[in-house]
Amino acid sequence: MTHTVNFVAADLGASSGRLMVGAWNGRAFSLDELHRFPNGGIRVAGSLHWDVLRMWAEIQHGLAKYRTRFAGLPAAIGVDAWGVDFALLDQRGRLLGNPYHYRDARTDSVPEIVFQQIDPHELFRWTGVQTMQINTIFQLYSMAHAADPQLKIADTLLTIPDLFHYFLCGARAVEHSEATTTQMYSPVNGWARRVLDTLEIPVHILPRVVYPGTQLGPVRPEVLRDTGFSGSFPTVAVASHDTASAVAAIPNMDESSAFISSGTWSLMGVEMREPITSELAFSLGFTNEGGADGSILLIKNLTGLWLLQECQRQWSREGRHYSWSDITAMAATAPAFACVLDVDANDFRAPENMHRAIAEYCRRTMQPNPETIAAVARGCFESLALKYRSVLESLETLTARRLDAIRIVGGGCLNALLCQMTADACDRVAVSGPAEASAYGNVMLQAVATGHLSNIGAGRAAIAASIQCVSYFPHRTEDWDEAYARMEHTHTHA
User: Fold this and answer.
1) Cis amide linkage into residue 120, ω under 30° from 0
2) Which of 413, 445, 409, 430 is nearest to 29 (CA)?
3) Relative to the CA of 447, which of 32, 79, 297, 315 has its CA 20 to 30 Å away?
4) SS3 175
5) Residue 109 parent element (H or E)
6) How far apart are CA 349 and CA 464, in angstroms?
7) Nearest CA among 334, 337, 333, 335 for reference residue 479
8) What is the largest CA-CA distance in the chain?
9) Which ranges in 183-260 belong to alpha helices (H)?
């Protein structure tokens, strides 16, 4: 009789979080959703924060559910989440305030101020990280510049998944893939202490860095008591940046493949053994982040389904409630290429009304106003696919590789229309799956850490045996080439 062991993945996203149970039977994984909850920024006194205590309550609630549905103990638990954001603890390990949301306005214009003191090219050569005003270094500088009292009394900085690992087991450590999102860490040389000293950011708050697959310690007795467990199990630092976990789960990932982690953000890239910190990589806005197996992920961060998610939210506020399948079906019927958007334009960063922001962008760029929901949705999907084509061309230039396949994971891989548009726009086969890539990568790395799998290669093979991927083959038309030329022209003159 096959013995099955369970791993619990807390997979936290910017718009929702969930706890998943990954059951390993010695050959394949099966995933079961244990608990799901909405997530998002909370605006308080003009600032945007994360409600991490509510998220922690949801994680505990999910663990309590485990006790009602499964016999025995899980083999381990691990947390993955987004990058760049962080919490501060005092010397006694108490949380100092509500962590800020990366879309908070406190970092507006901060990179320009920082680069009066540090050369941006030099910072990129050191860290390999793309300059985005949401990055941890700019968030911390905004606090130092404002003489924020929280920073003055802080003892430890923990990224969001590391904070929940701390709540679970008491370990104060930053996992490697998360550290590489901060723009304060070199995969070769560690924390950029000289840079931080220059910016008067306290270096002493930065804890040790651990690698994916590290056992951090047993779950705290009080957490076990509060969630109903009679025995303990380990907390594992997985590839805690959700992108790194997602890429770890991609079957058949090789040197001729690009990946897209498709969700609120789209992260498109390739796996490398060494970072690329050339002037061209800098000018094209690429970033180098830690992968799950000593790899480097050369990535372009793109705004993904955020535009449509925010439109959907606005339509709901107006009493027009549409599911994702409704929106996609309407988009499929709309005329093609009515408008082409720069999905990364500042217009779309955090508007109060995304539908209105899209309309204003189209007026500003002298394009027809997409008045209907179908036209807005079609424009968003097509524009995202065209953006993927641009990034694919840059990746092939930077790596000197021909990339024959685009492997799409995350929630966006379930959207057949977007997957087919990606294949058509890029003239490459697009392979979708798994949708639950971050959770699969999370539980797989727990299995490696606990000795149930020998290594990540074996883990990827196990995931391939666990899922069914779908291939989309390109249908090339000149319309895509014309739209791509329009996109480049529009972005240049926007």
Assistant:
1) no
2) 445
3) 297
4) strand
5) none
6) 36
7) 337
8) 67
9) 193-198, 221-227, 242-248
Q: Are residues 307 and 358 in contact, defined by beta-carbon separation less than 8 angstroms? A: yes
Which pTM does this prediction carry?
0.91
- Which amino acid is located at 425 in the chain? A
Domain 5-237: CATH superfamily is ATPase, nucleotide binding domain (3.30.420.40)
Say if residues 399 and 272 touch (Cβ distance below 8 Å).
yes
pLDDT of residue 493: 56
Cα gap 360→366, rounded to integer Å: 10
Helix or strand or coil: residue 262? strand
Choose among 39, 34, 38: nearest CA to 62: 34
For 222, the 3-state DSSP assignment is helix
Within the chain, all domains assigned CATH 3.30.420.40 are found at 5-237, 250-433+454-494
Angle at 277 (CA atoms; ends 276, 282), nearest 5 degrees: 115
The full DSSP string for 379-447 is HHHHHHHHHHHHHHHHHHHHHT----EEEEESGGGG-HHHHHHHHHHHTSEEEE--TTHHHHHHHHHHH
Question: Is the dihedral angle over the CA atoms 131, 307, 19, 430 positive or is it negative?
Answer: negative
Q: What is the pLDDT of residue 79?
A: 98
User: Which residues are catalytically annotated?
Assistant: 242
Q: Is 292 helix (H, G, I), strand (E, B) or coil?
A: coil
Phi, psi of 81 (to 5 degrees): -160, -170
Tokens found for residue 343? 């999905």
**Residue 265 buriedness (CB in 10 A; 0-12 / 13-18 / 19+):** buried
CA atoms within 13 A on the CB side of 217: 14
pLDDT in tens, 248-279: 999 999 999 999 999 888 999 999 999 999 99
pLDDT at 270: 98
Q: Which two tokens stand for residue 128?
A: 């390999």
Q: What is the DSSP letter of 451?
A: T
Contact, 65 vs 35, CB < 8 A?
Answer: yes
83 three-class SS? coil
Distance CA(316)–CA(303), nearest Å, equals 21
What are the C-alpha distances in Å from 234 to residues 75, 209, 221, 224, 229?
Answer: 7, 18, 12, 11, 13
3-state secondary structure of 77: strand
Shortest CA distance to 9 belongs to which of 25, 41, 33? 33
> Is 157:88 a contact under the CB 8 Å cutoff?
yes
Class of domain 250-433+454-494: alpha beta
Indicate the residue type of 111: P
pLDDT-flagged residues of the chain (< 50): 1
